[in-house]
Amino acid sequence: MEPLLLTLRLLLAGLLYLFLVTLFVLLWKELRAESRAVAGDYQPHGRLVVVEAAEGVLSPGTRFPLQSVTSLGRSQVNTIVIPDAYASAEHALLIWRDGQWWLEDRGSRNGTLLNEMPVTSPTVVSTGDIIGVGRVKLRVELEDQRGGRSR
Question: Which pLDDT score is estimated for 35?
Answer without folding.
Answer: 67
